[in-house]
Design goal:
alpha+beta; Nucleotidyltransferase, domain 5; 4 domains; nine-stranded mixed beta sheet; five-stranded mixed beta sheet; 14 helices; 16 strands; flat
Length: 466
């Protein structure tokens, strides 16, 4: 007898055919009653030959060829197969097979698992979705004070990423960044009144949706999207200088060392500083372009909004006329998004917070890594994998108002009570309540989880917001 540990069947024989190990079995016993109405008036109604996949045995793909009896109920006229709890009828496989596939599919590609277990890749995908779809669709994270909205071009389209910038946690991964997709999500988002500021790039639907659902939140344009335009302007100047070079060797040099133009002076090593000095000597226009870019970057060193505006105006007026066409995109951006760009400095001045989408970009990079590992996952698969990653949790304190009788003496007054309303013999007090909440995906430790390392609740994964 083969030790299958699968009750209700009897193994008739086994056979081998290359990499396939086949187990031929039949049902034993008889159901107590109808699985639908419970009636004991049931009769045999033939049998079906079913192929049920199981975990590998003897290092081979395993298939159970089962002669499964069928019954009919005389009272409700329903037909049903011999009940076997260990069969997952949705996938024609054992429950232990389905559970194993669901577990390993979190950190391995579907095609890799399909080759190991001898089933079609579509079967792996269906098991994955059926196992986790309900879990992630019911996941609700605590609403953040600082929200990040960004996008990533992956899995055949531009996807929207939502993050909690207060604790650097991921919240959601939406299929599109259009208003039709964003509006239902933010409509159902709980605690929208808690959002104080939203970081985004210069995509008009983001601004529109923020004003619609977070009318009191400050819109902040992510500084890295602004600074990126400066790098693009300098690169356009470099390409123009390179095109005017007479020798192929010099053109190749300007192409190979192009990243020096994006390096800040304090990050350059000695070799890069020497190379930059040579560029200034041989190509004065590149040196001027680099200095213009650095002055633009220094706008973000301003302490408040007024200083930032003054620095921008000074920078703009100092640009040589020959270089101004390359910065036209920056000028237009400040005309259309100036208020939102300079809101960055208001937030720094009043709260000390430098709100950026750096951790949203971090999630985007990790998402690309997941997609690369899976050799091109669908969007649904990527979303499931991200939302099932380790979570960041924290403790918050809220206050509940209750009425009680007035204390007769100050000596009996509870220390944390705050009398706010007196009505006859009663007073209203605030009772503190602490509760554990889930902020979202732990982006800081997500890479460890992807690498298969043991995940631990690191100190920054548990945050006390008291």
């Amino acid at each position: 007898m083969l030790p299958l540990d699968l009750p209700g069947i009897d193994v008739i024989n086994t056979s081998h055919d290359g990499q396939l190990f086949s187990i031929h079995a039949g049902c034993v016993g008889r159901p107590v009653g109808c699985v639908y109405c419970g009636s004991v008036s049931i009769v045999g109604h033939g049998q079906n030959n079913q192929e049920v996949m199981d975990l590998p045995h003897h290092g081979k793909f395993t298939c159970i060829h089962l002669k499964r009896k069928r019954y009919k109920c005389k009272d409700c006229s329903s037909t049903f197969f011999h009940p076997l709890d260990w069969i997952n009828d949705d996938h024609r496989a054992t429950t232990r097979f389905v559970d194993r596939i669901a577990k390993v599919s979190l950190d391995r590609s579907f095609s890799d698992i399909a080759r190991e277990y001898g089933v079609h890749e579509k079967t792996i995908r269906n098991i994955f979705y059926n196992k986790y779809a309900d879990v992630i669709d019911t996941t609700r994270f605590e609403s953040p004070e600082y929200l990040g909205i960004d996008e990533i071009n992956i899995a055949g389209g531009v996807r929207c990423c939502i993050t909690n910038l207060s604790v650097n946690a991921g919240i959601e991964f939406l299929p599109k960044r259009t208003l039709d997709t964003l509006r239902p999500y933010f409509h159902n988002m709980p605690g929208k009144e808690n959002v104080k500021a939203v970081a985004m790039d210069m995509w008009r639907p983001y601004r529109q949706i923020t004003k619609e659902f977070f009318p009191h939140a400050i819109i902040v344009i992510d500084k890295f999207h602004v600074l990126k335009m400066a790098d693009m302007a300098v690169d356009a100047i470099r390409k123009k200088v390179r095109a005017d070079c007479e020798t192929k060797r010099t053109q190749l040099k300007l192409k190979k060392d192009r990243f020096i133009m994006r390096t800040r002076p304090y990050n350059m090593n000695e070799l890069e500083k020497l190379q930059m000095a040579m560029w200034r000597k041989d190509f004065p226009l590149l040196g001027i372009a680099y200095d213009v870019k650095e002055e633009f970057f220094r706008i973000y060193d301003a302490k408040d909004r007024q200083e930032a505006i003054l620095r921008f105006k000074t920078w703009k007026s100092a640009i040589p006329e020959a270089l101004k066409p390359y910065w036209e995109t920056v000028f237009i951006t400040y005309e259309n998004w100036g208020d939102e760009i300079f809101n960055f400095f208001d937030l720094v001045e009043h709260s000390g917070s430098k709100l950026t989408n750096a951790y949203t970009e971090c999630q985007n990079s990790i998402t690309r890594a997941i997609n690369s590992i899976g050799r091109g996952y669908s969007f649904d698969a990527l979303r499931v994998k991200l939302l099932l990653a380790p979570k960041k949790e924290g403790i918050i304190t809220s206050y509940r108002s209750i009425k009680r009788k007035k204390q007769q003496s100050d000596n009996h007054t509870i220390g944390f009570s705050l009398a706010t309303n007196f009505n006859n013999d009663y007073e209203t007090i605030q009772i503190p309540e602490r509760r554990l909440v889930t902020w979202g995906i732990d982006l800081e430790n997500l890479e460890k989880w992807l690498d298969g390392q043991e995940y631990k609740a690191y100190p920054n994964s548990m945050i006390d917001m008291d």
